[in-house]
Amino acid sequence: MRVHFTGISGTGMGALALLFREAGHEVRGSDMAFDPPIGPALENAGIPLLRGYAAANLDWGPELTVVGNAIRKDNPEAARVRDGGLRAASMSGALRELFLTGRRAVAICGTHGKTTTSAMVAHLLRKADLDPGWFIGGVPKNLPAGAAIGRAKRGLLGNAQNAGGPSPFVIEGDEYDAVYWHKKPKFLDYVGVSPSDIALVTSIEHDHIDIYPDLESYLGAFRELAAALPEGGLFVGDASDAHVREVSKGSAARCVYYALQGDDTGDVTPTWLGAPSIIDDAGNQLFDLYAGGVSVGRFGMKVPGAHNIRNAVGALAVAAEGFGVPFASLRAALGEFQGVRRRQDLLGEPGGVRVYDDFAHHPTAVLETLRALRSRHPKGKLFAVFEPRSATACRAIHQTQYVGAFGSADRVLLAPLGRTNVPEAERLDTQKLALDLGAKASAEASVDTILATLLAEASAGDTVALLSNGAFGGIYTRLLDALKARK
After folding, report:
1. What are phi and psi of 65, to 5 degrees?
2. Geometric angle at alpha carbon 163, from 169 and 128, rounded to 5°
3. What gap in Å lies between CA 364 and CA 398, rounded to an integer?
4. Which end of the chain is more exposed for a tag (fewer CB within 10 A), N or C?
5. pLDDT tens for residues 105-158?
6. What is the total count of domains within the chain?
7. Terminal-residue alpha carbon distance, the chain
8. Whole-structure pTM value
9. Do both 103 and 75 map to the same domain?
């Protein structure tokens, strides 16, 4: 089939284009720019790329046009598809139709931890020889790519839960809307394909304020997800989150809960419980796992932090409850898990200064990331360098929550907002945030001033956490180069 991608350079769209190519389809695509990492990946795959949008880009006669969710109704390619009655699909719709049909979907959803948990689940199932497909909005370090079709191996574990059933396809379930003509969360396209689909919900905390103006509208999306799960499916939820507990009650599927020791789990009893332990001399985060109140032993992983233990317990619950993967396999596989790029991703240690890249931008994610880095590196100063860039982070909705989020940092450098289209009255006030944080914080004027401050203050043994969900003005390579060159 000939397939054109309008907006091919987005992380998800690019990954889907590569999946189509892997499946044997002829693929082309258009976008305004083709920046790393997805642009070079598309070029290396031999996919023709067209810079800019034009109706003529569809002259080659595609049988399907996949339209990205950033594309507006008046885009010339969208208009040609619509006015010409051509076949079109959203990214999530195309995934459902061409890659989830005949498979058992494992949708990993929630405000926080989706990418890491998706990568964990895919890795665990892959190491158990289930040969899953996956579609993850990041670059997992243990997997050959962010997306893969997998193969239809069935029943390899010889257990009733998977024998003869459809092969798994792990997918990061985004609550953002699908496309301009279908303003529904993407994750609704990922469940209800097979009668035994699984949804894991990690957390529900108001986000994406540009499409969910209040908490109730955001909760509504997750209520629809729970209701869409088939009766023979499985809902796996974090019992410590009251919103997750509430939406789970609207699901006809079997509900299983997980938590960490000491959590308030309200009116539910978690089947799966993690008890955090130490970080050992090799840098492994250890924890004890309990299933139904019975100890199943100690587990370890290379990614630190209580939030990652929580992610791991949820992933283990999916693999064990959903597919019957033995604990011995899960223990060995989790110990090999290396994480995902841009999640506590150590870029280098020039001059003895550890430089980490992390996608954290919501206050909860900032809080947990900094706590994890402090637990991994208890000595030396911890610098938190934060760029508010997402639609939510650039708004004042979490102004007060950010004050507590930086508690683990010794020094906080706040970059200018990454968006200029937010009304002034609604913007996050970085100057006020710096004042509320006290002497350890400063609102910087530019990436240049941030670099100058880090070069003046950071010493060997210190840790720098660069927190942004965007390019952050190229600070990553600039800081590494400057620290290397520093005398």
Report:
1. -115, 120
2. 55
3. 10
4. C
5. 999 999 988 888 999 999 999 999 998 999 987 778 888 888 899 875 444 333
6. 3
7. 57
8. 0.82
9. no
